[in-house]
Amino acid sequence: MKNEQNTASNTKIISKPRIISGISFIVLSVVLLLSFISYLMNWKADQSQAGTMSDKTVESSNLFGKIGDWLGNLFIFESIGVAAFIVAFLFFVFGTLIFKKNYFKPWKTISHSLFFICWIPIFFGAVTNGEGVLGGVYGYQIMDYLKSYIGLVGLWMVLLVSFVLYFVLEFNLRPSSIKNKLNDINDNTFGRLKNMMPNSEEEFEADEDLEEEIIPENPAVIETLTPKTENDFSNIKVTQDFEPIKTPNQTSFKEETKESAPEPIILSSATAQPQKPVIETPVIKSEDDFAFNVEIKKDEDFPVSSEQQKSDDLVSRHGLYDHKLDLAKFQMPSVELLKDYGNEEITINKDELEENKNRIVGLLKTFNVGISEIKATIGPTVTLYEIVPEAGIRVAAIKKLQDDIALNLSALGIRIIAPMPGKGTIGIEVPRKNPTMVSMRSVVASPKFQSADMDLPIVFGRTISNEVFVADLAKMPHLLMAGATGQGKSVGINAILTSLIYKKHPSELKFVMVDPKKVELSLYSKIERHYLAKLPDTEDAIITDNAKVINTLNSLCIEMDDRYELLKNAFCKNIKEYNAKFAQRKLNPENGHRYLPYIVLVVDEFADLIMTAGKEVEHPIARLAQLARAIGIHLIVATQRPSVNVITGMIKANFPARVAFRVISGVDSKTILDSPGAEQLVGKGDMLYFNGNDLTRLQCAFVDTPEVERIAEFIGEQKGYSDAYLLPEYSGEEASSTVGAFDPNEKDALFEDAARIVISTQQGSTSMLQRQLKLGYNRAGRIMDQLEAAGVVGGFNGAKAREVLISDLNSLERLFDELKGR
Ligand SMILES: Nc1ncnc2c1ncn2[C@@H]1O[C@H](COP(=O)(O)OP(=O)(O)OP(=O)(O)O)[C@@H](O)[C@H]1O
C-alpha cells in the first residue's frame, strides 16, 4: 500500500515538459537505432544518395527515408562508425533519467560510453584499414595518425593496453579477486554438477575441502540463513485434493519451480560467500506418467552447516571430547585423608550466654541506651548478640560505645555492627571462651560443598550461624588475603587449595605457586605433574626466586593474550563456553584449539615481592587481575603486611574480593577491607570475607600440614602428566619500560580531573586529554605519564591508546585517597 502511494506520488512529481522531453529522447533513440541499422544494411546505396536531400526524384532505401540516410551518414560514415549505436543508447539513457528511472547509473554509463565511443572507431579503423563504414572517418583518421607515429604494432599495443586497463580500472580487477571469481565459477558450475549426484562420496569430500579452504581459521561457526520471502515455499502443503496437471507429453516443471523458489543461502562468517545447497525434489508420478517435481522446504531440508555436520559426526563416532581421558584412572582424594577432629557440635554454655547478655544490657543502660529486644546466635568462634534498641536511640550513640563495651566484657575481638545489614538490629559479636574448631573434613564433606555447582568452589569455613560457607573463585574473580603473622593465613591458603583440589580434576585446574618464604607451599611440589604449571626449562614448579616471578607473571600475561585469541577465533565469551564448544568437537585442535584448564596463581608473600621487584610485579599482576577473569586465570594474593605501599590502589582496585585475618591495627584493616574490624578479630582463623559488597565474619576451616601432605602424596603417587603444565616462554627483553614512581609533589593540578576523564571514558589517550582539558600536547603527555606512574593507565602502547587499569570512579577515588596517604 505504502509502495503504491510512493509510486503514485513519484508519478505526480514528473512535470509535463519532463514527460515530453523524456518521450522525445526515447523516440529519438529508437529513430537513431533503426536508422543506423537500416543504414548499415544499405550503406552503399544510401551513401550514394547523400546530398540529394532536396531532390524528390531520388528515392531513399533507408527505413526513415532521407533523414535516416542523413543520420546514418553523419554518425556512422562521417564520424564514429558502429560506435554510433552508443549515441543512440545514450539518448535512451537520458530519456529514462528524465523519467526518474534509475535503470542506469548516469556517470558510470556516460564514462563507459565515452570510452567505447573513442576506442571502437579506432579499433575498427585498424581492423578494416579504413575499408567500409565500421570505424567511420574519425576512426580511420585517428588510426592513420597513430600508425604514422607509433607504427602498426604500437597501434595495436595501445588498443590492447587501453582495453585491458579499462577493465582493470573500471571493475577493480586484482589477481586475488580474479581468483575468487574463478573459484566462484568453479563452485557454481562444477560444484552444482557434483551436487546433482546425491550420496556421492567425492561430492562430500570436495565440499569439505572447499569449506576448509575458505575458513581455515575457524571452521566451526557457520550460520544458516533462511530467507523468508513472499516466495518462501515452506508453507506449501501437498494435499489429496491436488490435481495433477495433465499434459500429453512428458513434462518437467522442475526448472520453473526452481526459478521462483528462493534458494537458502549458506553464509560462512569468514567469507560471506553464498553457496547454494541442493534441495531434494520429491517426484510425484501422475497418471499420465510425467514427472512433476515439487520442492517443499521442510525444516530438515535446510542444510546443516558442514562444520556442524562434521562435529556431529565426530561426536557420534567418538562421543564428546573427554578432557579427563589422559588421566582416566585418576582418583580424586577422598575425605578420609583429612583428619577427623572429633565432635564439632557447638555446645551452648548457658552461663556464658547469660553473663554476656546481662553485661551488655547493663552497660547500655548506664549509657542510657534502652533495649527492647536481644537475641543470641552462637557460631564456632563468636556469639552474635543482636539488639533491637528502643525507639529514638541513635545508632551512632551505640557505635561510640564499642570500646566501653569491649572493656566491660573484658574480651578481645568484640565487633559492633551498627546497623546489621538487611536487619533493623545492632549486632555485637562476642568471642566465645571455648571456640569450636572447624575442621576441613567437616566442611569438605558437607552437602553444601559436595553439591556446589560452581566453577571454582572454595569452602572457607563456617559463618557466625555455623553454616558452611562456600564461594566461587571464578566469580570473585581474584582474592586478596591479608593477616598478621600467626593468625591463620597459611592455613587459609591451604584450605583454599584443598577445596579446589577436592573438586577439580588435574585436567581442569593448574596452580602457579609463588612462595618467597620457600616453605609454605613446598608440600605441593608432589603434585607438580598433576596440578602445577611452570615456565619451560625450569626445574621447580613452585617459584621461590623473586626474579623468576617476573618472568612467570609476564608469561601468564602471554598465556592470557593467547587464550583471548583462541576465544576470539572460537566466538566464545568465556572459558566455559569455549571448553564446552571444544568438548563438542567444534574446535579443530589443528588450528591451535585446546582444552583450557583454569589457572590459579597463588602468591603467598606479596609484600616481599613488591619490596624487591616493585612495579615490575605490580603491573603484570594488575593487568592479569583486570583482564584474566574471562579466560580462566584467577589470582590469590596474600600478604602479612597490608600497608598501602604493598596493597596499592592499583592492586586494590582490581581485587574486589578480600579476606582479612586478624591484623595489627585499624589502619591495616582499612587498607585491606576499606573498613575497620579486622583488628578486632581473635586470630586462629577468625576472618572477615568481603565480596565487594558485604562483609561476612567466618571461622576458617583448619587443615593441618600432615593433612595436606597426605593429600599431596595420594595424588603424587598416581599417574600424572609427563610434565607440569607448561606456560608460554617469556624472554625478559619483552618487559615493557616503566616510568618512575608516582611523586605526589610533582602532580599536575589537573591530574585528578584527567584521571576522572580517563576512567569515565575508559580511554587512555593523550590527545583526548588535550581536547577535553584544552591543554598543550606536552602537558597532556606529562599528565599521562603521571597517570601511568599512579597506576591509572598502562604503559605507552605505540599508536594505540593506553590500557585503562581502573574500571570505575569509586575505585579511582579510593586510589586518590591512598595516594594522598603516601
Ligand atoms: N582455622 C584455624 N582453626 C584453628 N586454628 C588455626 C586456624 N588457623 C590457624 N590456626 C592456628 O594458628 C596457627 C598459625 O596459623 P598460620 O600458620 O596459618 O599463620 P600465618 O598467618 O600463616 O602465619 P605466618 O604468616 O607467620 O606464616 C596454626 O598453627 C594454628 O594453630
From TrEMBL:
Spell out the InterPro entries in the cross-references. Answer: FtsK/SpoIIIE/SftA (IPR050206), FtsK_4TM (IPR025199), FtsK_alpha (IPR041027), FtsK_dom (IPR002543), Ftsk_gamma (IPR018541), P-loop_NTPase (IPR027417), WH-like_DNA-bd_sf (IPR036388), WH_DNA-bd_sf (IPR036390)
Q: Which GO terms describe its biological process?
A: cell division; chromosome segregation
Q: How does it sit in the bilayer?
A: Multi-pass membrane protein
- Location(s) in or outside the cell: Cell membrane
Q: Name one GO cellular component term.
A: plasma membrane
Native source species: Epilithonimonas mollis
**What's the protein here called?**
DNA segregation ATPase FtsK/SpoIIIE, S-DNA-T family
Q: Which PANTHER family match?
A: DNA TRANSLOCASE FTSK, SPORULATION PROTEIN RELATED
Keywords, in A-Z order? ATP-binding, Cell cycle, Cell division, Cell membrane, Chromosome partition, DNA-binding, Membrane, Nucleotide-binding, Transmembrane, Transmembrane helix
Instruction: Indicate the family of this protein.
Output: Belongs to the FtsK/SpoIIIE/SftA family.
